[in-house]
């Protein structure tokens, strides 16, 4: 039995040694690009105002997504919200474009992944408390419940697992980080 265990350990130690540094970060970046890149970009697009100047004038929907209760409290009149609200909405909108792009190309990967973790944390808190998802058990979900499809707990655990992998491992060999480190 010891021979079998030793063989098992030797084979998988070799596989880990040969693949962990390049396979995990490359696969994590691919998984992010394949599943979340356009999710965040499409979400960011809903926050832009009309026309070319829309990148500087967030839409009413942007405020509604990020500050639902504050917007409702001022009767959906953006002009009654302060500079803080505008800056947060603009930063959140830009983050939905910039951070995913940085992750996909592998530039400042660890910082971009940390930024996305922060973004997803704020997004989750806004969904739970700002939009009232906390009152809907089917949306929040539960771990260990045999249903893997809740929008909050299940999905975002997978998102965060991919991002934590990138924080710990970096962008991998097919990244701008690696290319620039050799220059």
From TrEMBL:
Transmembrane regions: 22-41, 97-120, 157-176
Compartments, record wording: Cell membrane
Family that this chain belongs to: Belongs to the DoxX family.
Membrane topology summary: Multi-pass membrane protein
Key words, A-Z: Cell membrane, Membrane, Transmembrane, Transmembrane helix
Species: Actibacterium lipolyticum
Pfam families reported for this sequence: DoxX
Taxon lineage: Bacteria, Pseudomonadati, Pseudomonadota, Alphaproteobacteria, Rhodobacterales
Protein name: DoxX
One cellular component (GO) term of this entry: plasma membrane
């Amino acid at each position: 039995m010891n021979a079998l265990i030793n063989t098992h350990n030797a084979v998988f130690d070799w596989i880990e040694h040969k693949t962990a540094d390049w396979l995990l970060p490359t696969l994590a970046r691919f998984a992010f690009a394949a599943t979340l890149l356009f999710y965040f970009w499409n979400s960011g697009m809903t926050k832009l105002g009309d026309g070319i100047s829309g990148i500087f004038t967030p839409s009413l929907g942007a405020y509604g997504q990020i500050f639902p209760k504050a917007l409702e409290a001022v009767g959906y009149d953006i002009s009654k919200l302060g500079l803080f609200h505008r800056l947060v909405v603009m930063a959140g909108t830009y983050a939905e474009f910039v951070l995913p792009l940085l992750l996909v190309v592998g530039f400042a990967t660890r910082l971009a992944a940390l930024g996305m973790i922060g973004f997803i944390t704020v997004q989750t808190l806004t969904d739970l408390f700002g939009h009232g998802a906390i009152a809907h058990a089917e949306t929040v979900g539960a771990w260990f419940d045999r249903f893997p499809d809740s929008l909050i707990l299940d999905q975002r655990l997978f998102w965060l697992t991919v991002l934590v992998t990138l924080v710990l491992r970096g962008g991998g060999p097919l990244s701008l980080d690696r290319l620039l480190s050799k220059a």
